[in-house]
């Protein structure tokens, strides 16, 4: 297991409530530079809420988030992050091409790349090649399989040249070929020094890349360490309550 570098994400005592209901309850977490950290847990345990609070997409009720050693409220370097949310917006009739969707990921780098310049085209082409979709650049996104659409979103996140990739269930409902292509893309990103925070239902093809897993149950981190063997949080896997160190491990 690689030694974790300087903190890229730091979460301390994070509490998020929707109305009266606390969905995250005092979460502490850290992701060091170069780590690939999985967030696992049952549906509704608070995984997406954690990721969205880390990205400042929903407000925290208590606690602190730091990105690249900067408090979230002062953080402005969004080009250092790439984010793929849980699901592609369903049923969009917009006939955007694959290349257009990926180019949209470069908006955060406005000023660094000219809109129609070579640098932008090269960034789009490189990101599409990384996810195995170079040959689909000019096709409407709607003609792609669900797995290929998901890879398009990952290419969009990669195109901006981020240091941290945040992915929410990127392989859910995705075919095996897309899962392998996705794992290869993440592997390349990590080999280049990238850091990854990824919500996963089960480790799947990313297992070989994961350095650590956080298991969330009912708004708390109940495990921080070895990657669980199976999907966590389901009664048939852990019938006697939340996972602990003896049930986990490789
Ligand atoms: N915007 C919201 N408003 C109200 N409740 C929410 C909202 N987002 C999530 N929740 C609730 O918070 C809990 C955790 O949701 P979520 O973080 O999406 O879980 P997970 O990603 O682990 O499946 C769920 O009970 C969900 O219904
Ligand atoms: Mg979720």
UniProtKB/TrEMBL annotation:
Pfam families: ABC_tran. Keywords: ATP-binding, Nucleotide-binding, Transport. Residues 9-243 form the ABC transporter domain. InterPro entries: AAA+_ATPase (IPR003593), ABC_transporter-like_ATP-bd (IPR003439), Metal_Ion_Import_ABC (IPR050153), P-loop_NTPase (IPR027417). Coiled coil: none annotated. GO terms for molecular function: ATP binding; ATP hydrolysis activity. Belongs to the ABC transporter superfamily. PANTHER family: METAL TRANSPORT SYSTEM ATP-BINDING PROTEIN TM_0124-RELATED. This is ABC transporter. It comes from Pilimelia terevasa.
